[in-house]
Amino acid sequence: MNASSSPHRYFIELAFNGSAYHGWQIQKNAVSVQEVLNKALTTLLRQNIETIGCGRTDTGVHATQLYAHFDSNTEIDSTPTSSMPLSFIRRVNAILPRDIAVKRVIPVPPDAHARFDATLRSYEYHLHFHKNPFLDGFSWLLRDELLIERMNQAAKILFEYHDFSCFSKSNTQTFTNNCVISRAEWVKSTNGLIFHISADRFLRNMVRAIVGTLIRVGREEIKPEEMHRIIESKNRSQAGTSVPAYGLYLTAIIYPYIQKQNQ
């Protein structure tokens, strides 16, 4: 690592078990992943580091892939593949707690932005149907029988809309509630079901509210076609209850320039 008068921008890719944290974003009176990461990078680089994440996650939500960017006056030598040396990753991981792991640190242009440059985001929601101590805190135990065909029929209706106000947490300071959903489907897994959803952006609480609504369909409490009425109402009270956060995972963030570096 070499000191430099001009700052260098880096993307940092990490994964975390969100059980002990109040989400990604820094909170006034609670511990967040961002706060812990900032402290680790500040300690290692010996300068004040403030990361900016690709988005925010709710309390207890996990991530198998999350990107943030940070600026540093210290230039960290890169490998021919434009990824940071393994030694740097080992050093920052040695400072971080066991439930947060850095995977890569990537040099990017000075105007690259972890939040605004992302073109696609993906989440998974995990359900299981039989008590399993190894899934506790990582998947929601649901004892009801669900009709996956009906849930997927309802999920397809999401593709017909852009305004998802009915699935958004109230009083969020967003300029628009429009999102473009490109994937929404339930898939059987070894332990139960996984809901896969991808979009250009997500609203606060959106995925958990969608899952809660689709579970109502799977229980035959409402018909699949009632998704039209719920979405068109633009009213959060018309959608299903938000499911527990610990079954939710942020799994992928796509950036055009990072894809090129991986080729």
What would you say this structure looks like, in words?
With 263 residues, this protein is α+β, with helices and mostly antiparallel strands. Helix content is 23%, strand content 28%. The chain is built from six helices and nine strands, in the order E-H-E-E-H-E-E-E-H-E-E-H-H-E-H. Strands 1, 2, 3, 4, 5, 6, 7, 8 and 9 form a nine-stranded mixed β-sheet that branches. Strand 2 (52-53) and strand 3 form a beta hairpin. The longest helix is centred in the first third of the chain and has 13 residues, at 33-45. The protein starts with a strand and ends with a helix.
Ordered list of secondary-structure elements with their pairings:
Layout: E1 2-16, H1 33-45, E2 52-53, E3 62-75, H2 86-95, E4 100-108, E5 120-128, E6 140-141, H3 148-156, E7 181-188, E8 192-199, H4 206-218, H5 226-233, E9 248-254, H6 256-262
Parallel strand pairs: 3-9, 5-6
Antiparallel strand pairs: 1-3, 1-4, 2-3, 5-8, 5-9, 7-8
Helix pairs in contact: 1-2, 3-4
Spell out the key features of this protein.
263 residues; alpha+beta; Alpha-Beta Plaits; 9 strands; 23% helix
Brief overview:
With 263 residues, the chain is of the alpha+beta class.
Largest sheet: 9 strands, mixed
Estimated share of beta-strand residues: 25-35%
CATH superfamily of the largest domain: Pseudouridine synthase I, catalytic domain, C-terminal subdomain
CATH architecture of the largest domain: 2-Layer Sandwich
Shape assignment: globular
Helix percentage range:
10-25%
CATH topology of the largest domain: Alpha-Beta Plaits
Number of helices: 6
Can you identify the CATH class of the largest domain?
A: Alpha Beta
N/C terminus separation: 26 Å
The overall pLDDT average reads 91
Rg over alpha carbons: 20 Å
Derived from helix and strand composition plus strand pairing, the structural class reads: alpha+beta
SSE series: EHEEHEEEHEEHHEH
